[in-house]
Each structure stands twice: as C-alpha cells, then as structure tokens.
Specification:
This protein has three domains: 108 residues, no CATH class; 119 residues, Beta Barrel (Elongation Factor Tu (Ef-tu), domain 3), CATH 2.40.30.10; 149 residues, Rossmann fold, CATH 3.40.50.80. It contains 13 helices and 13 strands.
C-alpha cells in the first residue's frame, strides 16, 4: 500500500511534461489523463488524486502541498501524510481488487520506479532462518485492534465470509503462509475456563493490506448450525470464535497468539519455482498473501519471480467466490505467470456429469500438474480436511494411469519438500 501511495505522491508532484495520455488498462473503469504543472492550484491536484483514488476503489480526498522540492524525498514524506490523513485503512482499501489494480496501474504509470517494499525482508530475502514462530503464546497473548470487518461474499453464497483487518502496530510480524491464533473472549460453559485458541491462516502479505507492515488480515467464515427441528440456526451451537470475529467492529480488541507454522511458506530462493495452490473456501487465505507478494507489491520476491503461480479454488457457487476481482486483475496483468481455475460445485459439472468438486477441476489438468511437479513445482492444499481424501484418490488414480507407484511418488514429493498441506 505504501508503494501505491508513494506512486500517487510522485504523480502529483511531477511536472506536466512527465505525463501523456494513459491507455486504459483492462481493470480500470475510465480513461485517465493528467495534465498538471507544479504551480497549479491545490484544488486541481485534489481532483487528480480523487480520480486516482477511484481506481483504487476509494473516493477519499487528501490535501497535498504544492511544493515540489526533491521529488523522491517529497513523495516519501507525502506518502506518510496521505496514509495518516485517511480516517482508517478501510477507506483506502475499501475494495481489495481496487488496490491490486491501482497498485499495478501506478507502477505502470511510473515505469516501475515506485519505491521498494523491502523493509520487512530477510537478508537475503529468501532466507527463512529468521521466520518468527510462536512469539506470543496463550498465557501472554498479543492484543490487536480491528481496523475493519467486511462481508466479502454475495447474497446467494452458502454462508457468510468476512475479511477482517487487524492493526498490530508492527509488533506482530509474520510471513506469508503462517497463521494467527485467536482467543475469543469469555469462558467455556462446561468448565468455566477461558476459550481455547483457534488458528486462522493469515490472508495478507507481511506488509498487510495497507502495505505499512502494521496490519494483517483474516478470512473467516461464520460457523453456524442449522437445526432441522427448529428449522433455523441454533445460536447455542454457533462457532464461538468465528462469530466473534465476524461481529467485530473497528476498535474492538482481539487477543492473538503466534505466528504459527512453517509448512505453508514459499521457497523463494529459486525465482523460477512454480506454485500450485489448491483451496476450498477460506483455505484461500494464505494464497492471497502469496499472490500479493509475488505480483502486487514491489518486493524483492516479486522483482525476481519468473515462475508460474496457479490457483485452484473450490466453492459452491459464483456468489461464494473469494477475492475474485483481485485474482482477475493479477491474471489480466500477468497472464504468463498467474493462472486461475474455479470449481463451482453447484454450477459446474465434471466429466462424468456430477458436481464439479476441487479434485475434479485439478484432474482436468493432471498431465500438466504432474509434469510441473516432476520439474520441481511445489503444491499446496488448504481448506477443510474433507477435501484431502478426494484429492488423494484422484492423484492416486492419475499416478497409476501413468505407471507410477503413488506411495513412492508422494514420498518423493514430501522428501523434497514440494508437498504442503494445512487443513482443518
């Protein structure tokens, strides 16, 4: 996000000679042409910022000074001022797809000259020896504050899923692929003890949705229980933690532990590595962090990456798709490096005429996937644990059709650390 804001600041302090007509990228809604001189009225600059803001899914108006000074230093200073002026993060990241699109647009406008997103990187950036693990524990949790909670599925989705941004003030660092533990408030009815920790995969890169390094996001589906006798949701059996999170409001406190896990980390040392990411429902969370790091932010990993990231997502219907606008923006701008396939069980059919589940969609590309894995690709699975039996049965059938011993094939992937599973 800082990269994007810095881009806006650079745009607004540039002389008119720096601008020509901008061809409308596929992800924008209007053509944008800017003609400004350094001494033009502030009101015109504000209007220009508002136009760029609309590309990012926001109509926030922020006042910028007209002094140009040293362009780089001035832009950096104004970037901070812009972030601090906005009421809260949600105003600037109201639509995640807008941020993705505008981040790419700003980078394109400036010819890739935006400031680097590298202040949370290891040295070198792919060194995993310093990955933080279990910094905060159950007995001494971290207290974060909710920035925003937003429903991100349509009215016909099977259940409610929310995107929750939490402010940690930069005191709770994590890496893409890790999880946060959340301790819901209150005590258990059966014994009066505090509720246990629930783990949630983090749905943002280490820089957060605002790219300041001070926030992180969760993708949470509200857990409910439909009682056939009551013919309604039984509130006594609802998910304690998921309902707490989906009901949060800006400013609410959240007790957190972690960050947890290393199994879902990306091995970034070889920038040509292919990533095959398979998810059901909210299992999409870690992959959002992956994709933002590789394609949206100006990170060392993004600048080096030459491989292909292939995302498979299984949900019930189109209204249940998560972050679709973000994926489409990345796909449009990186067609050779990002692939996207959906399995919509209530809208699509598999080759046998049955419902299209995630294993069916993956099977459609089994030859290509097996070839990628034989060439060193890493494959990830995240979502409900019920997804794995169907996937493994499918992979076993494909392996046998190719004359491979499935158990030995799988053992080889695990030995080379190409197989990553996090299910719940």
């Amino acid at each position: 996000m800082v990269k994007f804001i810095a881009s806006l600041a650079l745009v607004l302090v540039a002389p008119s000679s720096a601008f020509t007509s901008v061809t409308r990228p596929s992800f924008t809604r209007t053509d944008v042409t800017l003609h400004m001189a350094a001494d033009e009225p502030v009101s015109k600059r504000k209007r220009a910022l508002k136009v760029l803001g609309k590309i990012a899914g926001t109509v926030s108006t922020v006042t910028l000074a007209t002094s140009v000074g040293a362009p780089a230093a001035f832009a950096a200073k104004k970037a901070v001022e812009v972030v601090e002026t906005v009421d809260n993060t949600q105003k600037l990241v109201k639509a995640g797809a807008g941020v993705v699109a505008a981040g790419i647009a700003a980078k394109t406008l400036l010819g890739g000259s935006t400031s680097k997103q590298d202040f949370l990187e290891a040295e070198p950036y792919y060194d995993q020896s310093t990955v933080p693990v279990n910094v905060y524990k159950n007995k001494a949790p971290f207290t974060g504050k909710v920035v925003s909670t937003k429903r991100i599925v349509g009215p016909k989705a099977t259940g409610e899923t929310c995107h929750i941004i939490i402010d940690h003030n930069g005191d709770f660092p994590y890496w893409e692929g890790q999880s946060w533990g959340v301790i819901p408030p209150g005590n258990r009815e059966k014994d009066g003890k505090p509720h246990s920790v629930r783990l949630y995969s983090i749905a943002s890169s280490r820089y957060g949705d605002d790219m300041t390094g001070k926030t992180g996001s969760l993708c949470v589906r509200r857990a409910t229980y439909w009682c056939p006798e009551l013919k309604a949701d039984d509130p006594a059996k609802k998910g304690i933690c998921s309902n707490f999170l989906c009901d949060t409001k800006p400013g609410d406190e959240v007790k957190m532990t972690g960050p947890a896990g290393k199994v879902m980390l990306m091995p970034e040392e070889d920038p040509t590595t292919d990533y095959i990411m398979v998810a059901t429902g909210t299992g999409i969370a870690p992959y959002r962090g992956f994709v933002r790091r590789l394609f949206v932010e100006n990170t060392p990993a993004a600048n080096a990456y030459k491989g292909q990231a292939w995302l498979f997502l299984g949900v019930a219907n189109s209204d249940a798709l998560l972050y679709d606008d973000e994926w489409q923006s990345v796909k449009e701008n990186y067609p050779d490096n990002f692939r996207l396939d959906y399995a919509l069980s209530r809208e699509q059919t598999n080759k046998d005429g049955g419902k299209m589940y995630i294993q069916d969609k993956v099977e459609e590309y089994s030859d290509e996937i097996f070839e990628k894995l034989s060439n060193g690709a890493h494959i990830y699975f995240c979502g409900l644990k019920g997804m794995m039996p169907g996937i493994q049965d499918m992979l076993k059938g494909v392996a046998e059709s190719k004359g491979l011993d499935y158990d030995q094939w799988l053992k080889g992937l695990k030995k080379s650390k190409q197989w990553h599973v996090e299910v719940y």
